[in-house]
Predict the 3D structure of the following.
Amino acid sequence: ERANHPHAGRSVSMPYRPWANITAVVLHQTAAKMGENPSSWHSVPIHFGVTREGKIIQLYDLTEVCNHANGFNRRSVGIEIDGWYAGVEGQLNTLWQPNAQAKRQPMDLPSVQANAVKETVQWILNTVEANGGKVTHIHPHRQSSRDRQSDPGSLIWQTIGLWAQQHLNLSDGGAAFTVGDGLTIPQAWDARYVGNQY
């Protein structure tokens, strides 16, 4: 879908970066329902969107810098996972609601979608390495923005983020790691980080 995407979210100051500068993957939840039609993703500044049915849609080239994750933008590839998810599973008050009247319930993460995200992460690592770079980190968006406290949420982070650390030897930066005004990974997302608050 790269040829059809308007690329309006590309960085003006640094539209492209060398392969060697790509060192991280950032996970997001859309907090909306984008659907299966690739054209419905044209307003999203993200490298990849993964639908509820497991469709992987590439919207930007990996060497393009798009505005998806604040201080991570220049060195990361972003993946948006379609759906809305609680910041902490089982705590409805941590689910972002689009307005005061909304009463959405958290979505599940279908295995076909989760597996597609894992395949996307692996493909990114392989492609960057094939071009002389190396991805070493995986991050939740919340680490670079306090306005994204629930992004991508504990379910996605525990299913994908922890998997990537255990199976692909990626790092999240550690218990105290943040960028800009970001928030640390809470204990509710990762039991290693005792005392980190949601």
Summary: The two ends are 36 Å apart (CA to CA). The chain is about 20% helix and 10% strand. Residues 111-130 form the longest helix (20 residues). Strands lie at 24-29, 48-50, 56-58, 76-81, 137-140.
